Amino acid sequence: RAKKSLKTNFEYYAPEMEEQTTWRLDMIRQLRNDFGERKLQLWYQPQIDLVTQKIIGMEALLRWPSTDGGFVSPAVFVPLAEYSGLIIDIGAWVMQEACEKLRLLTNEGFTNLRMAVNISMPQFRDPAFIELVKTAITDNALAPECIELEITESIVMDEPQLVIDVLHELKAFGVKVALDDFGTGFSSMSYLQQLPLDRLKVDRAFVNEISPNKSAFIAETIVTLGGKLGLRTIAEGIEKPEQANYLLKLGCDEAQGFMYAKPMPFDALLVFIAQEAKKDA
Ligand code: C2E
Ligand code: MG
Ligand code: MG
Ligand code: MG
Predict the structure, then answer these.
(1) C-alpha 118 to ligand 4 mean position (Å)
(2) Does the ipTM exceed 0.95?
(3) Angle of helix 87-107 relative to helix 129-139, nearest 10 degrees?
(4) What is the pLDDT at residue 281?
């Protein structure tokens, strides 16, 4: 995505684009600096089993604190990190950090949880990628099945054979694979069958369409497709009980959304999981 828009800058020159380029380079410089100073954070959003209502895991999400006390949106800085190549080092840190935190949860007695980690295309092109995933898992004595890689359709379409090969090798090691934001890109059905997938993530945009008087036919189609492909399905962006109920009726397996919990720092996650465990006791 970032690559394409930069190309546009060269093709059609306009002064405001030069400004944009300066802004972009400035952001990249700041990001590199802040990452070097260990200022990036990893937050976690719980994932819930729709049937049992129990926490089954979490998705790790990058947070970049900004000078005004808020955060720069990952939707803004992740593409810059991808374009600049910084995502290779940042992504390696994310993988290690996520594995370390899952180890801490296991030590606290919370076993059988899954940690989902988002992966970008440049990471697939990194020859060290497969090894660093394996090392992060074994260094923390985790079962590989507890780590799930989230990839998007655009990654697959970018360089299908490379992505398929890398995923098959990691899959043989034991890690799980989820197709994120499903339905928002253009994945070919034939790739869907060649990828070693475990889960389809129904994008928030389609969950959003679910309301009391409306049928949400795309969400329904994705859940049905997942079932036919033998995959589990998880819906993201659930904000209302009626959305959860509808998805449960469709046969969707899992849920993630503000209705259950927003992304939170690790300490808060630990409290959240401990409280949920008490409810069950
Ligand atoms: P994503 O992987 O699809 O992550 C889900 C996004 O939906 C997160 O946004 C999450 O905060 C948001 N979300 C979850 N439930 C709800 C809800 O009920 N309502 C609303 N409005 N939003 C909800 P976030 O954290 O801003 O991340 C945006 C994107 O940035 C991610 O989308 C992912 O593509 C990328 N990203 C984040 N962390 C990483 C990372 O470590 N590596 C890579 N490569 N990409 C990352
Ligand atoms: Mg994701
Ligand atoms: Mg998503
Ligand atoms: Mg999304």
Answers:
(1) 11
(2) yes
(3) 20
(4) 75
